[in-house]
Design brief:
By secondary structure, the chain is of the alpha/beta class. Helix content is 59%, strand content 12%. It has helices at residues 2-59, 92-109, 121-130, 147-163, 229-304; strands spanning 76-82, 113-119, 136-138, 168-178, 181-190.
Length: 305
């Protein structure tokens, strides 16, 4: 009797947990769709401004901008790690922190002073446990990061880079490739030495196999700069960096919701399997108990004859 009561109690608890995980799965699905829409909308703008900045930088060969110049010797760098504030998202945070820690050790091994910036409570608690001091921490970036919030961080990086306080900016985050694939990466955003256009996830390749020109590569676009190339680059290059950093935050947000949706779906399915297993055990225990009671009744009746 005690065994069946324990099974009933445990089955009830798991059913309640399944309701919670199912609800969290639905919430993550709704947030994922909204975050993915924002990421896809920003993708076209990010790609276009990267193309424009690359074309302008290639056309204005006589213009030297500090954001385009790679330092001869890198002494100080920034590593920004983008994680989540909440858990229950599978191996999302662990994958990012593993790659970020590897990059951190590699840069420190080269004798470079690393300034660690952390976004997300999971990253903050991890490095606090590791005894690594963070220079800046952020916990206000949720599943809907705004450009104004990212702009404040990006502007500080730009000012420090132009002033010579830092020589490189790396970002460790979960890159959103498509709804079925995300990958932890560590990308260098400053200096803007490689202004390659961001590949589109929606545009099909050119039938001719080439780029814009259609024959072996993109056609070089000639620009007439008004009022000046330097003035235009002064606006385009900082904006290109800010947009790329904002895209990192958007990718991180949508990847987190995908990971949480997958984790909660798996938890819900596992809870269903446990409930079925416990129901089977309960039925067998109840059947054995009834059989025992019937045997006792029959035995007692036979003894009275």
């Amino acid at each position: 009797m005690a065994n069946t009561r324990a099974l009933v109690k445990r089955r009830k608890a798991i059913r309640n947990i399944r309701k919670i995980t199912r609800t969290m799965e639905l919430i993550a699905t709704a947030r994922f769709k909204k975050a993915m829409d924002r990421a896809i909308e920003a993708d076209a703008f990010t790609r276009k401004i990267a193309e424009l900045a690359a074309d302008l930088a290639a056309s204005a060969t006589n213009i030297h901008h500090p954001l385009l110049e790679k330092r001869a010797e890198v002494k100080n760098s920034v590593l920004l790690v983008l994680c989540s504030n909440r858990g229950l998202c599978g191996g999302y945070n662990a994958s990012i922190l593993r790659d970020a820690s590897t990059a951190l050790r590699k840069v420190q091994g080269e004798g470079i002073q690393v300034h660690l910036d952390l976004s997300g409570k999971r990253a903050i608690s991890y490095y606090r446990y590791q005894g690594v001091q963070a220079e800046h921490t952020y916990t206000h970036f949720e599943d809907k990061p705004s450009f104004e919030e990212v702009d404040a961080v990006a502007s500080r990086y730009l000012a420090d880079y132009i002033a010579g306080k830092i020589d490189r900016v790396d970002v460790a985050y979960m890159k959103f490739l498509n709804a079925a694939r995300q990958a932890p990466v560590v990308e260098t955003l400053l200096p803007l030495t490689t202004l390659a256009p961001v590949p589109s996830r929606k545009s099909p390749p050119s039938p001719s196999g080439g780029g814009v020109g259609g024959e072996g590569g993109p056609t070089q676009v000639e620009y007439e700069f008004l009022p000046s190339a330097a003035g235009i680059l002064e606006e385009i290059l900082p904006m290109s960096f800010k947009i790329r950093l904002f895209k990192c935050f958007l990718d991180s947000a949508v990847s987190e919701q995908i990971a949480r949706r997958v984790a909660m779906k798996a938890a819900t399915e596992n809870a269903g399997e446990m409930i079925r297993d416990l129901s089977s055990k309960y039925n067998r225990a109840r059947q054995a108990q009834i059989t025992k009671e019937i045997s006792e009744i029959i035995g007692g009746a036979a003894a009275l004859k």
